[in-house]
Design brief:
Layout (H helix, E strand, L loop, with lengths): L1 E5 L8 H10 L2 E6 L8 H6 L2 E4 L6 H15 L4 E3 L6 H11 L6 H7 L2 H11 L7 E2 L3 H11 L3 E5 L9 E3 L2 H8 L7 E5 L4 E9 L5 E5 L1 E3 L3 H7 L4 E4 L5 H13 L5 E9 L5 E7 L7 H9 L3 H11 L11 E7 L9 H7 L4 E6 L5 H4 L2 E7 L2 H12 L3
Parallel strand pairs: 1-2, 1-4, 2-3
Antiparallel strand pairs: 5-8, 6-7, 6-8, 9-10, 9-13, 11-12, 12-15, 13-14, 15-17, 16-17
Helix pairs in contact: 1-12, 3-4, 6-10
Length: 386
């Protein structure tokens, strides 16, 4: 099986998908803009062929790369990157080279928040109403119907960048007077905690692995207010969350893919669907799942592609937490003291790439324990300010 992985060097932990493909018996091929000699040795050794382009945003270069790899190795069986940034390029390449998977027509619905609303309805899952901002008069009419506060966000996009909370008519008019470079949507602000339903679906759309993340505070607030965040992968998944998440997976017809579905858990304990991302969560979350289950989700994905099944068991033996720190703050505990005090909990730590630092901090720690309370205390200490 010939599998083309786009941008295997970034994010830095994604080289493990390529290594897993090699271990599962596939022929791993890759396209990126990084010089080959600057790839980490483990990635170099796992790749059967690497094609370097000058600019990955130039689609004609990507087509030439895929054509060359086809000439050298035969028909391409799969194309992926696990990254939101390259979803559109993947889809175009799949269509042009007749490779199974998501195509541009699928992304027209799956990537747009307005497109997701119809699929949530198909799944029988409640979702907040959304209005695509095209005309100020229509926008004001929507606001009159749903009231304040509101959230304005790109119709296509992930994370909390370029997202605003609007609380007054004056703020609405200021937003409507802004020159918007992309389509925006308005949604009513929802009181509640974000909970996720994450996992991996097989070739028939069955969920073969699932998980859930819980955050210390909303990512929009973390980015806009430049504060710290920590989050954890829960051991126990509520039945209503699993039911709603699996109905969304079926409605979105997700196959042979990781998924990241966000819900609001409202004060009355009901769930309200927010959005779906057809890739794994960002940062070191895949590694967190591995530590939580003493498993290898990189290999699970590769086994699905190559063998059509997953031969691992996922028992969520631990709670695993990610704790981030930002360079802008002075913290009470220096790094050496953290490593000494929490050596029994700490399983990984590393600097965070600047691309992700607004949400995840400049330095991240992964800790695990059977006890959430123990991790919460550790997170409070690690993020305590001097």
């Amino acid at each position: 099986m010939n599998v083309v992985f786009i941008s295997p060097h970034f994010p830095v932990n994604f080289w493990q998908f390529v290594a897993a493909l090699r271990g599962a018996g596939a022929t791993p091929l890759a396209i990126a803009d990084e010089p080959f000699d600057r790839l980490r040795p483990e990635l170099q050794g796992a790749l059967a062929e690497y094609y370097r382009v000058d600019d990955m945003h130039r689609y004609d270069e990507m087509v030439r790369a895929a054509a060359f790899l086809t000439y050298r190795h035969g028909k391409i069986d799969r194309i992926d990157s696990m990254s939101e940034h390259w979803l559109a390029s993947e889809a175009r390449l799949r269509e042009d080279f007749n490779v199974p998977g998501l195509r541009p027509a699928d992304l027209a619905v799956l990537q747009r928040k307005t497109g997701m609303k119809g699929l949530f309805e198909k799944a029988g899952v409640l979702a907040a109403p959304a209005h695509r901002v095209r005309d100020p008069v229509e926008a004001r009419a929507f606001v009159k119907k749903v009231g304040y506060p509101l959230v304005a966000k790109p119709d296509i996009g992930v994370g909390a960048s370029r997202t605003w909370r609007i609380e007054t008519p004056a703020e609405l008019e200021s937003f409507l007077g802004t020159r918007l470079e992309v389509d925006y949507v308005l949604e009513p602000f929802v009181e509640g905690d974000i909970v996720t339903y994450d996992g991996l679906a097989d070739q028939d759309g069955r969920v073969v692995f699932d998980a859930s993340l819980r955050y210390s505070r909303g990512i929009m607030e973390v980015v806009n207010e430049d504060t710290d965040v920590w989050y954890h992968a829960a051991r126990d998944l509520e039945p209503d969350l699993v039911d709603a998440g699996r109905r969304v997976v079926r409605a979105f017809d997700l196959r042979e893919r990781f998924f990241h579905i966000e819900f609001f858990r409202r004060p009355d304990r009901s769930l309200l669907a927010l959005e779906v991302n057809v890739r794994p969560p960002g940062g070191l979350t895949v590694d967190m799942w591995n530590y939580q289950n003493d498993a290898n989700l990189y290999r699970a994905w590769a086994d699905l592609l190559v063998h059509g099944n997953v031969r691992q068991r996922f028992e969520r033996a631990y709670v695993v937490a990610y704790v981030g720190r930002k360079d802008r703050y002075r913290y009470a505990l220096p790094l050496p003291e953290i490593l000494s005090r929490y050596h029994s909990l700490l399983v990984h730590h590393e600097p965070v790439n600047d691309v992700f630092s607004a949400a995840l901090g400049n330095y991240g720690f992964i800790l695990r324990s059977p006890s959430l309370a123990e991790l919460a205390d550790a997170a409070a200490d690690i993020q305590a300010k001097a």
